[in-house]
Every structure is written in structure tokens, then in C-alpha cells.
Amino acid sequence: MRKFILLFFLFLPFASVLKGQIINSKSELSISAGNVIFGGTQNLFFPKGLSSNGLSFKVDYLQTIYPWLKIGPEASFVLPGATGKIAGGFANITTENEKIITGGLSIVFAVPYKESGWRNRIRLQFGIAPVFVSHSGQRTLTIDNTVINQSSHQNETAVIVMNGTSALGLSLTPAVEYYVDQRIGVKLSWNSLITSLKSELTTEQVRMNSINLGIILPLTRSKQINY
Amino acid sequence: MQIKVPDLLRKIKPRPMKKYYPKFLHLLFMALVILPFFTGCKRDSPANETKPLLKTNEVVVMKGVNGAVVMSGEFVVPGRYSSIQYGFSLDLTNSFQNAVTIPAGHDLTPVKFEVSAQMALMPGHTYYVRTWAKTKGYEVTGNVMSFQTDRSPDPVIEKITPASALWGDTIMVTGKNFDYFGKDNIVKFNDIQAVNCWGRGDTIHLVVPYVKGIQNYNPSVTVSVYDAITKVGFPYTIKSPVISGISATEGQYPDTVTVTGENFSRFGMQLLINGVADSVITLNKNSLSFVVPYLKVDQLSKIEYHDPVKNYTVAANFHYHGQGIKDWQKSAWIGDTIKVYATNIDFRRFNVNIENTDPILIKNYADWQTITNIWKDSLAFVLKGTYSDLTFNFDILFGDKYWDYPVHPTLLGGQINISHKKPVITGLQKEGVYFETLWITGKGNYFESLSHGVLITSLDGKVRVSFPSTGGIPGDVNIVPGDYMVQFYSFDRLSDPAYFTIKAPVISGVMPSSVFTDQLMQVTGINLPFNGDYIFTQRGTGRAYVQHTYVPPANEFTMQEVDPSGIIGAGSYDLSMKIGDIIYKYLGTVEIKDHFTYVMRTLDPVPQNFNYGCGFTVNNKMYVTQIYGLSIIDLASGNVRTKDSNYQYNHQPVFLNDKIYMQFVRNELVQLGVFNPNTEDWDPVNMDGVSSDFSLKGFGASNNHLIAFSANGDIYQYDTTWHLLGNLPIPLYYINYVHSMNGNLYLCDFYMGSIVVVSVADWTITKSIQMPATYNLSMRFIFEIQNEMYICGVPGGGYQERYDLYKLNTGETFEKLSPFLLKFDYFYTFCPDGHGNVFFENQNYVYKFNP
């Protein structure tokens, strides 16, 4: 949240420099990308705190239904990437060609547009989207355990593999938008994807957080008649 | 058409928001309904028997008095198990070779688990922890974590249960910061460590150690673990004994007395009797028993229970009944039973042994007496042997019957003095002859072969001999005829004397007065000795021959046999007897003749395997039957050769018309053969007409015919075949020889020792003659010389070294030709030739007999 406030004040000077009025758009397209941070609770395949080098790409198309509500499809492409020792050292994670693609309907609650003032150029909003999540590639969890089969008295491996799987999820996206002019804007968002991915032995609740920075392209504008 | 502005406005106005509600709400509703499913909060059902993969989460060491090691872990994959145990392993190395196991649970669907172990750990060490789980299918150990220990928290004793106890009781100490595994807890009572200590966690069980030298009943208890120790000792209470009663106030050794009370303990406890510790035989918390010790004299004794802290009086005046030996037999023979009486001693209750205080005086320390009877207040023993007539002392050693003697011997301080009695002579054979054993009876202290016996002294003082003896006075060359005094001696004690006489011999006659040198002669007289030297002194030459007689007398002391065989030269001899230096002369003379027989030849080689008794002589050759075959002695040369055969002889030969018949067994058949001198073998005689050769019991000759007798009494005569002549009314089991004389047949049955006389005229038995009884089982030979029948046998059943010769007279009586015929060195075989000559040999020489 502190990051969010910091960005807000970072872009605040632009609002005062550019005096031109921005006409509210009726629909918009946003494209953003960012770094993925895991935040799950089970700490297995996607443990919290695992050093992250994953990437997230997201595209939204939103249509203004009311000044405070926008609805539209969204899609994201995630390369989780992150591998290595899990904190505490009880297991090691490796991946192979792993990708996550999501798609769903985004419902965005926004601070309504004003013809003047900071709300003419800056939009604060919160999006929520049920999504379909597709996981492909392989993620392997090698656990630091000694496993002895009681029948054969042989050591067995302690490995859990997550192969391609799919699930439903929920994408939560608080964001701040700044319209540079009538044709383009900048969008800074925090996206949290919550889903459950199934491995061969367990189903893990996964939370992938990412800070995305992207652009906004207003597509149609509203024409208001003032009386 | 008029359009009103409000209508227009109404038309161009945006559609009321409420018209969008259904669409929006529909979407929102769908989202909210689906959301819970999207979140994936729902957990799948655990798989069955999955690998219980583990994660060791963290170890936290809590410090301070309430310090603990908190270990947490979890199962990586949810699972359901039919059985499972899980927990943590803790060790000082990450190899976990000496790990201790801390269980955390056995939930069949485990997830996370945690253990908080309030335990003391070795300070300044790195400990390693890992999770573990064991299911039916797998045993899994998780990742290893480590932690560093600091100083252990001080153990704290919170409670000891029960609040008081006895030494050796098991108690329970509860508190904090003990060694979790119970290995390194050191619990001390004052400064004494409880070595028997176990338990874990916050509970220690231990056996209360005995604190030697404790001054009160409140030892201080401390627990130390590694470098930490209880700051303040926990005061504990040891129960003090309480005496409530005693089962008896009087008694004697080895009565058992029981003391009752409470809190008795064997630790540091002693039962004191007059201040001296006594053995306690049973002890429990509420009673003890002891054996009243042997205190000798009657007294009032103080009995105390000694406890490490103080003494408790059990009985101030316990009446001990004095014990000791009261009376005993003062004088005894060896072998006598001696009875000892005692006061207040029930010998039946003891293992009793009588011990001589001076072992030198007894023959065998362990076997000088035998206790024969034990009663209440008395016992009896047999005195078996001592070295001397003495007064000796001994004690009675006894112990409790229920204890192992001599582990707990008790010396009964009495003494017994016993004197040997003087030996006495109660009977004596007062007269005897030289070398006769005289019997003396009496009573002395005889014991095995110790210094006991008789002392004999001649009245003229010339002879003084002693005989160690247990029965009588043995014959001895030194006890020559004369008068003697005899005394028993036993060690250094002599009996009163008794007297006996050895009488002088008198030779009254010799029979026969004229003998061959190979005959035995018989001396008659009185007081003849058992064993003496006879001297033959030849008249004229004075040559003397000493013949020692050893032949048992025919009639003790009045008749004796003398062997003159060593005398050379026929002539008249004076006979005398010598005993010691005394010579007793026979007033008559003895005529000694040359050999009764003469030696023909010395045999070479020595014949073997004689079937002694059967043989014949023909063509100047002796044919001596062997068990299988013949030994053939050439009388001209003495040469011996052997002819083997499968014949087995068992009868005497029959001479008839210059032919020799003999019955023998061949091929297990009884057969009759006629000897063929040319072949030196037997030509078989035709046995046709005889019912069964097996039934044949004897052969003989009569009226120039062979006759045969069967077992059922049939008599056959042989011409060219056999004819039945008659039948005897008695069965004939064994006929060794048949002699024909005066129209009668004499059937000799050596086995029965009888001769059956059969009349040839009508084949009836006319009489039965019994042979001299002593010959019936000895070696016998029958031979005929000039139609006279001679029987030679060994008197006494064949066990004496001579033959006697009898002649069957016409009157059918046995005439003893001499009291004795010949000495023999070995068995003889007599071989008549059917013409009045008889040759015999003894394996060394051939002799010829001439009556």
C-alpha cells in the first residue's frame, strides 16, 4: 500500500502541469507487465518468499458501464520461473517450460470521473475477475527426506511433480491510472492471482502477486451534455 | 405531432440506472457464486497411504526456568494412514546414530505437529533435529535443522511422592528442567547419589539411597543435570521405625523370635543382643525375625533395633536360657556308643558334628566318630578310633538346621573326656599243635589295623612275639611246642595274661611201611603239626632227606601224608620230624623202594589237546585220543606225532579178539569203529539192526561178541549184524565202559558213579555197585589187566594232585590197592594194550604200569 501511495504522489505533479480537460472514455485497453512474487500459504510448489524472477503480462479491455463500474475481459501470461531452495531448506524446486495463462471477466470498481480536478486525469480503481487458469510445463519439488520402503527396505525418492493442469481462480487488481492526454495513459497496478493448482499428490493454493506497469489506450469517449 | 420537451428530454436522457441493475446484478451474482469455487480453498481428500513426506519447520529454544525446546514440523502431503507414528529425532550429530526419539503423535490424518519438550540439554553443544514418521509402508526422516544450546536451566523439584518413605523405597520426583531422556539426571540425598534412577520429562522415579551416617530423618534432595543443579534442596522425610511387639520374651538358641512394628528397613539396621549384632533372618516393613544366639549361660539380655539415627529398645530383659553339656559317658571301648546329655539343647534342630580338639590323637579327623542318634537334649555317637588310650576332649559343633553347615557353626563349649578301657581276654584255646591257629577272644579298643594285637611269651622266656591281629593267634614257626602266656594289647595297654600250650608231636606209625618213591606215605600219630619237615635218614649211610609236608592231613593232627619222591636209593630209613630246633623221632623204620613205575621215554614233542582218559596201545604205539584226532606216541623212540580227524572220542576202547573198538562221534553221529593199525584210522562197524545210533549209550564185549546198549535199555549183540539180546528194565543214560567178568557184564556209569552188574545168562540186573563217592566226578580210567578191572580216579572230585587205584575184586567190592597211587603233574592218559599192559603218559613222560 505504501508503494501505491508513493506512486500516486509521484504522478501528482503531472496533474497540475497539464491543464487540458480529459474527456472520459467509454472503453479502454490496458497492457501491463511486471515481476511475479509468490505469496501462497502452503509453501510447496509456489512458496512464499522464494526468490522470484518470474514475469507477468496482462491485457484488459474494459467498458464503462457506470462512472464507477467497468466490465470487460482480461488475460494474463505468467512465466513463474522461480526455482531454488525453499526457505528452511526442506525442499528444492526446479521447473521445465512452465507457463501460466489466465483469462476471465474483469469487474472494476473505480472512483468516478470528474471534468476537473485530479479526478479528471487520475483514476483509482479496484478490479476483481474470476479467471480460468491454465498451467503448462513441469514443476518438480525434491524434498530433503529419507524414505525407506518398509517392504523392500529400499530408499525411495521424495519427489512431487506438478505437470500441466488447469483451475479456476480469482484475480484481484487494485490500480491507479493517469491519463497523459486524451489518447494514452499510464497504469500502475498490483495484481494478485489466487488459484489452486493440482500436483500429483496435492492441490496447492497458489497466490502470485505482481506489480505491473503498463499503458492505457482509451478507445471510445463519452459525450456528456450539460444542462 | 407535438412533442413536448419533457418527453424529449425523457427520451434522450440516459436510461435509468435501474434498468442496468439486472445485467449488473446478474454478473455480480454469478461472480460471487462462482468465487468460492475459484479460490480453491477446498482441500482434496487425503490420499491413502501416500508417502508421509515431512518438513521440519523450526526449533525454538525457550530459555529461563520454564525453558523448553519447541520443535515443529508438518506433513508435506496430506494423507490418511492405517497406522502412523511421528515425532522428532534429536542428536548431537547430524548422523543421528545415537538419536533420541521424541514422539509427537499418531493422528491417522496428520498435518502439522509440534512438541514442546521441557528438557535439559548439554550446554554449548549443537543439537540436530529432524522430523520422523513411520507408517505401515514407509519410514521417513525429514530435513535436518540444528540449534545451539546455552546453559541448562536449573532443575526445579516441585513435589516428591510419597511425602515420606523408607530407604530403598521407590519414590517419584516431579519438577521441571530434568533431563528429558532421564539419562543425565543425578539425584542426591544429601551427598549420596540415587544410582537406581529412571524416568523422563518432568518425572523421575528413583530408589531412595541409604545415606550412611545420617543424623536425622530429613535428607535434602537435589537434582542436577549437566551444569545445572537445584538451587534449594528439597527436604524429604525418611520414616522412623516404630517397635510395637516381640513374639517371645524368653528362649534359647536357635529359637526364632519375631519383632513387629512399622517402618523396618534393612538399610543400616542391626539387631543388637547385649550390644552384639545378631543375624536377622527375615525382615519386612512390619516385622523382622532373628535367631536367638548361643549365649551359653542363663541371663537377661537386652535386645535393640539399631537404626542409623538411633537405637530402639525391643526388649529390655529377654530371658536367655543357659545351654551346655550336662553329662556324658566317661569311659568307653572303641566302638562303644557314647551318650551325651545337654541342657536346653534340642539336638534334633541342628546339624551336629562332634569335633576333637586334638586331631593328632585320632586316626582320621573326619571319620573318627559317627553320630548314631539324636534326641531332644541328648545325642549318641560311636567312637570309631583313636591312636591311643587317652583322655581326649571334644566339643560339639552345631548349627541351625535350616542354614548350611558349616556356614553358621556354633561351638557348644562343653568338653567330654573319655578313657579307653583296659583290654580283656574272655576266651582262649588253651591247647594246640604247631602251626595250628589258636583262637582267642576278648575285648579291646580295636580299630582297623591300628596298634592292637596279641603278645605271646613262652614261659621259659625263649619266645616273645606279638601279632597284630583282630581275630586270633596265627600259627607261626616260632611258636614251637611248649607253654605260653598270651596278652591282648591295645595301644599301650595290656590285658591280664592267659595261658596255652603247644603240644609236642608223637609219630606212631607209617602206612604202608614199604613204599615206592613215587607213592605217598601216610604218617600216623598225635599232635602232628599242620606244616612240618620230615627227615628220612638212611641207615648205614646216614644220608638224610628233608621232606617238607604241605599235604593236608587226612585226619587233622593224627594222620599226615608225606611225599618221599625226593629220596634216592632204596633202603631202610629212620623217620623223624623237626619243629624249630626240636626233633621228634619215629621209633620204627620205613622201607623205601624204587619207582613204582618206571619212565620209559621222554616225549618229544609234547602231545597237545588230550581228550584225557581215552587211549590204547597197539604195535608198540600209544594212541592218545585228542578232541579231534589222535596223538601217536612211538614207545620205542618217544616221538610224538599227531593225526587229525573229525572224530570226537568219548568212550574207553573195547578189546576183542585182537581188535580195538571205540565209540566216537563223527559228523555229529555216534558211531562205532574198529581200529585199522595200517591206516591208523577207524573202519566203520555196520550198525544195521540197531534202532538208532543216537540212542546208543555204550559198547562192550561179551562172549567174544560186541554188545551195545541203547538208552531205553535194549542190549544188542554183533555178529555180522546186530541182534537184540534182551532188555534191561532201566534206562541207560551213559555207559563209559563195559567189563565182562564171571558171566556178568559190569556197566560203568561214571556220571552216576555206579556200576550196574548184568547177568549174561538172562540179561537181568543182578546188583548195582556204588563206586567210592569221591570218584564220581573226577577223572577216571578203567583198564583190564589179566581180566582184572582196575579203576583209577582222583579223590575229592578231581581237585587233588594224586590218583588212587582201586581193584574190583571178584566179590564185587572195591579194594583200595594203596591209599594213594601217584602224584601227577598233569593229566594222565591210560592206554592199555589189551594184553595186560597199561601205558600212561603225563605229557612229559611215558610210564608203564605193572601191578
Task: Give an account of the 3D structure.
- The complex is a heterodimer of chains A (about 230) and B (about 850).
- In chain A, a hairpin with a 5-residue loop joins strand 10 and strand 11.
- In chain A, about 10% of the residues lie in helices and about 60% in strands.
- With about 230 residues, chain A is mainly beta.
- In chain B, a hairpin with a 4-residue loop joins strand 28 and strand 29.
- The N terminus of chain B is likely disordered.
- Chain B is built from 2 helices and 80 strands.
- Chain B has about 850 residues and is mainly β.
- The termini of chain B are far apart.
- Chains A and B meet through strand 5, strand 6, strand 7, strand 10 and strand 11 of A and helix 2, strand 2 and strand 9 of B.
- Strand 7 of chain A pairs antiparallel with strand 9 of chain B, so a sheet runs across the interface.
Rg of Cα set of chain A: 22 Å
* Gap from first CA to last CA of chain B: 209 Å
Q: What is the number of helical segments of chain B per DSSP (H or I, 4+ residues)? A: 2
- Extended strand count of chain A: 12
Low-confidence residue ranges of chain A? none
- In terms of structural class, how would the helical and strand content of chain B be classed? mainly beta
Query: How far do the termini of chain A sit from each other?
Result: 40 Å
Global mean pLDDT of chain A: 84
- Gross morphology of chain A: elongated
Please give a handful of descriptors for the protein shown.
heterodimer; A: about 230 residues; mainly beta; eight-stranded antiparallel β-barrel; about 10% helix; about 60% strand; elongated; B: about 850 residues; six-stranded mixed β-sheet; 2 helices; 80 strands; disordered N terminus
Could you outline the blueprint of secondary structure elements for this entry?
The complex is a heterodimer of chains A (227) and B (851).
Chain A: H1 2-17, E1 25-38, E2 54-66, E3 69-79, E4 84-85, E5 91-110, H2 118-121, E6 122-143, E7 146-149, E8 155-156, E9 159-162, E10 165-179, E11 185-198, E12 203-221
Chain B: H1 5-12, H2 21-38, E1 47-48, E2 54-62, E3 68-75, E4 79-80, E5 84-91, E6 100-105, E7 112-117, E8 126-135, E9 138-148, E10 156-161, E11 164-165, E12 170-176, E13 185-189, E14 192-193, E15 197-200, E16 203-207, E17 220-225, E18 228-229, E19 234-235, E20 237-238, E21 242-246, E22 250-251, E23 256-262, E24 270-273, E25 276-278, E26 280-283, E27 287-291, E28 299-306, E29 311-320, E30 324-328, E31 331-332, E32 337-346, E33 350-356, E34 369-383, E35 394-400, E36 410-412, E37 419-420, E38 424-428, E39 431-433, E40 438-443, E41 452-458, E42 464-468, E43 472-473, E44 482-490, E45 493-494, E46 498-503, E47 506-511, E48 514-516, E49 521-526, E50 532-538, E51 544-549, E52 559-562, E53 571-579, E54 582-593, E55 598-602, E56 610-618, E57 621-626, E58 629-634, E59 640-644, E60 647-649, E61 654-656, E62 659-666, E63 669-676, E64 681-684, E65 696-702, E66 705-710, E67 714-718, E68 722-727, E69 737-741, E70 744-749, E71 754-759, E72 764-770, E73 780-785, E74 788-793, E75 802-808, E76 814-816, E77 822-823, E78 829-832, ...
Parallel strand pairs in B: 1-4, 11-20, 22-29, 31-37, 39-46, 48-54
Antiparallel strand pairs in B: 2-3, 3-7, 5-6, 5-8, 8-9, 10-12, 12-16, 13-14, 13-17, 15-16, 17-18, 17-19, 21-23, 23-27, 24-25, 24-28, 26-27, 28-29, 30-32, 32-34, 33-35, 35-36, 38-40, 40-43, 41-42, 41-44, 44-45, 44-46, 47-49, 49-52, 50-51, 50-53, 53-54, 55-80, 56-57, 57-58, 58-59, 60-62, 61-62, 62-63, ...
